[in-house]
Structures are given as C-alpha cells and as structure tokens.
TrEMBL record:
GO molecular function: alpha-L-fucosidase activity
Gene3D superfamilies documented for this protein: Galactose-binding domain-like (2.60.120.260), Glycosidases (3.20.20.80)
EC number: 3.2.1.51
Annotated ranges, domain F5/8 type C: 350-424
Protein name in UniProt: alpha-L-fucosidase
InterPro entries: FA58C (IPR000421), FUC_metazoa-typ (IPR016286), Galactose-bd-like_sf (IPR008979), GH (IPR017853), Glyco_hydro_29 (IPR000933), Glyco_hydro_29_N (IPR057739)
Residue ranges constituting the Glycoside hydrolase family 29 N-terminal domain according to the UniProt record: 61-326
GO cellular component: lysosome
Listed Pfam families: Alpha_L_fucos, F5_F8_type_C
PANTHER family found in the cross-reference section: ALPHA-L-FUCOSIDASE (PTHR10030), ALPHA-L-FUCOSIDASE-RELATED (PTHR10030:SF37)
Length: 478
C-alpha cells in the first residue's frame, strides 16, 4: 500500500509540474530557423558579370572575357563584414545572365572561360575560405532564371539546375542559407521555365539539411515584400506558404504573414547599401549613411525580421571605401546605441500577475530568449511596470517573445511617463522574435506595457531600453 501511495504521490508531482508549463502554440520554428533568426544581420555580395558590364540584369550574351577583376580579395570582404558585425555573407554564384562564379561542369558560361587567373579561378571557393578564416557563415544565391543556358525552358534544365546546386552544396563546406530568386523570364530560346521547386528544395535538404531556404514562400524563410529596408508594423512568422509560389503576383496580400498561418516562415529584409544591387561608379556618393542603416536596422531586426544588407563589390574585386566606411560607422552606432539602460540598480519591475514561479518577472531581464514572464491566464489586460529610481534619457524600447513557444501577441501599448509628469502613449501590433518601438528622445521615469490582445496566453521574454544616437550626436528619432 505504501508503494502505491508513493507512486501516486510521484505521479501527482509530475502532472502538477506539467500543468504549470504553458503549452506551445503552433506553428513553431525548427532548430535551424531559430539559429538563423539569432543571426539577425548578415551580408549579400552582388558581384558577377553585371559588375563589369555596369548593368543590373545581364542578357546572357556577355563575353566571359569581360570578367577580370584586377585585385579580387575575398578576405577583404570577410574582414570588413566581420568588423561591421555581420554574421555571414551570401554570394551571387549565378545571376539571371547565367554566368557562374565557379567552374561548373553543367554550363559553359563560367569563370573558367574568363581571363581572370587564366581561367583557373573560383570566387565561391575563395569566399568560402575567407568566411572560414574570419568566423563567418557562408550562403549561396543561385538564380533559377538563366538567360544563357540553351536548355532553359525544358525539363532538362531543372535537372541541370539541381546538379549545379549539388556542386555548390557539396564542394564548399557548410552553407547557412540558400537564396532563390523569384524572377522568371525568357531564356535564349524565348521560352520560360516551369521550375521544379520540390526537386530544388530536396537538394538542399539532402546535402545541407541545416541550411534555411529563402524565396517568396520559403520553405524556411520568406521575402519581406519590398527591397527598401523595412518590415511592416504587423509581422507574423506563421505563414500560409502552400497558397503561393516564388514570383507570386499578389504577394502584397501575404507580406504581413498570417495570424493563423500553417507554417513558420519568418521574413528576411533584403536591401542594398547603394541604390543598385551591383556596383556602378556613379553611385559612389550615394551610399547609405550609418544613420540610414540604423533606421533600417530598427525597421527590420526591430520588426521581427533578419537584415540582409547588400554590398556591391567593385570591378577591382574589392568593397569600395565609401561602403566600408558606412558599414563600420553603422557598427559603431549599434555598439554605442544598443546598450540596455535597464539594470537592477536603477529600476524596479512589477507586473499585474504571474502564472507561476516558472514564469517570474525576473526573467524579463535575463537576456535569454528561452525564458519568459507570463501573466495568469485570466489576466484580461496584463501589464508590466518598469520604474526608474532616476529618469533616464531614451528613445527606443525593445520587447521579445520566446518564439520557441510560438508567436502570440496581436497588439500591445506602451505608456511612458516622463520626468516632467507628461505621458506618452505608443501602440504596437505584433512582437515576435524582436520588436523595437522608437519615440522622440525623452527623460523617462516609468514605462508601462499593456498586452492588449494575443492568440493565446501571452509570454514576454525580454525588455530593453535604449538611447540610439547618430553620427552627429543627435537623436535619430524626432
């Protein structure tokens, strides 16, 4: 009898413990999607035949001898990317014109036919080695559209593209992201291609199962819906990916994701540091400033997306000094501005309720995305109070959800009490992995966050408060 009582007592403890845990809310991110999201910021390198012909989209008729960088140095790219805080680099291994930056066996339009290194060069290999040396992750862009290949527009081309994928996925080490392009125009024979997406996806899953794949509908991460450097106020990682396809004409209807989407497909913001994606000499003085890049960061990483910043490498094969200066200046702004002003010595946090000790308000400042505060399930308008002993100068507030348990928050508001007693109210929609709310720089005495609406019991993982400054030592936000 005693054994039976002990068993049921032990079982009761297990069931009680399980009852205390808040259940995940599907869909959920995979482990590789979580690792990708944690990268936050990485680079795109547009360098190819277009660099030398001074166009954005080549026609596939360009002579290979056009490609001849005078001082190509992928170590310089990696060194600058690392210094700027990027976590990886994605290279345009083949753009729409069909010219490959490596000696592929499945097309004759490659660096092997160029005068660069007497046809013995391989840009993909050089960048892979440089990324390894500088501790960066390597990604591949391979446009399915090919304006050169004679097989384009036939079933055979899908097999050729898959074989090129295999080359890139098996010869250059780990790949963190494989980037498809939704462009699909006519090939040299005037035909368009019906892409075999299941085949393409299977190649990456087979040879680089830890890599995420990007396109309009994923399958792992998706296009944000613009190339101007921002995500939208409402941004759901849940996404009905089976309803659309790469190049989908009505993508605007899907750009915000879907509150009850079927799959987890978080957005990526792709934007160039210059007006164009490829290098053009007349854009040397049109490089985005560090201030502009900081605003882009807040509107991308700060709106539940990752930032993919493009650097157009010049005809020498080097990152131009103007681009490099902007990238390093941007890194300096982040270093100085993204300092959390909340600490135990200057502030106190109080909450409307707590689900249980596993979801304590102390977890709001532990910097872990795997822990969270949760209010009681019957708390109809849960809130977090952040009170400062002495007012602090700030202009941005950051919140995170523990996305391992799903995305939940549908709407929230922030009431800021200033040192003067004046109140400032800000409204937000979704949160997701990370959400930054900016406001005119003020002396802040108290912040109250109301969780207005959610798909399920809300969870908040982290809170941070910043004063983001500009290169002119002025507030970025007015």
């Amino acid at each position: 009898m005693r054994v039976i009582l002990l068993f049921f007592s032990f079982l009761g403890i297990i069931l009680t413990s399980q009852a205390q845990q808040i259940s995940p809310l599907a869909p959920l991110p995979s482990s590789k999607q979580l690792k990708w999201q944690a990268m936050e910021y990485y680079g795109f390198v547009h360098f190819n035949m277009n660099t030398f012909t001074n166009v954005e989209w080549g026609e596939g008729k360009e002579a290979p001898n056009n490609f001849n960088p005078s001082a190509l140095d992928c170590r310089q790219w990696a060194r600058i990317a690392k210094a700027s805080g990027m976590k990886g680099l994605i290279l345009t291994a083949k753009h729409h014109d069909g010219f490959a930056l490596y000696p592929s066996k499945f097309t004759s339009h490659t660096v092997a036919k160029s005068p660069w290194k007497n046809g013995k060069g391989d840009v993909v290999k050089e960048l892979a080695n440089a990324c390894k040396e500088y501790g960066l992750k390597m990604g591949i862009y391979l446009s399915p559209w090919d304006r050169f290949h004679p097989a384009y527009g036939t079933d055979e081309y899908n097999k050729i593209y898959a074989k090129m994928q295999k080359e890139l996925l098996t010869q250059y080490g780990p790949i963190f992201e494989f980037w498809y392009d939704g462009a699909n125009g006519e090939g040299p024979n005037g035909k368009k291609q019906v892409y075999d997406w299941p085949l393409f996806h299977s190649m990456v899953n087979k040879y680089q199962p830890d890599a995420v794949q990007f396109s309009d509908n994923g399958p792992d991460i998706r296009w944000v819906g613009n190339e101007r450097g921002y995500n939208y106020e409402t941004s759901w990682s849940p996404f009905n990916k089976d309803e659309i396809y790469p190049g989908f004409p009505n993508f605007d209807k899907y750009r915000n994701g879907q509150e009850n989407g079927s799959h987890w497909v978080a957005p990526e913001v792709d934007v160039s540091i210059r007006p164009g994606w490829y290098y053009h000499p007349n854009e040397d003085n049109k490089v985005k400033s560090p201030d502009s890049l900081m605003k882009i960061y807040v509107a991308s990483v700060g709106r539940n997306a990752n930032l993919l910043l493009n650097i157009p490498v010049d005809t020498r094969g080097l990152i131009h000094p103007n681009d490099s200066a902007a990238m390093i200046g941007f890194a300096d702004l982040r270093k100085k501005g993204l300092i959390n002003l909340i600490n135990p010595t200057n502030s106190v946090i109080r909450v409307s309720s707590t689900h249980n000790s596993n979801y304590s308000s102390k977890l709001l400042t532990d910097k872990s995305i795997n822990t969270a505060w949760a209010p009681e399930s019957n708390d109809k308008r849960a809130y977090i109070d952040l009170m400062f002993n002495k007012a602090v100068r700030a202009n941005a507030f950051m919140l995170q959800e523990p996305i391992t348990l799903g995305q939940r928050i549908k709407a929230f508001s922030i009431e800021i009490t200033l040192e003067s007693g004046e109140k400032l109210t800000l409204n937000g929609k979704t949160i997701g992995y990370k959400r930054m709310i900016t406001f005119p720089e003020k002396m802040v005495k108290q912040i109250r966050v109301f969780l207005e609406d959610s798909r399920a019991q809300p969870l908040i993982s982290n809170l941070e408060l910043y004063r983001i400054i500009s290169t002119r030592n002025e507030s970025l936000f007015h």
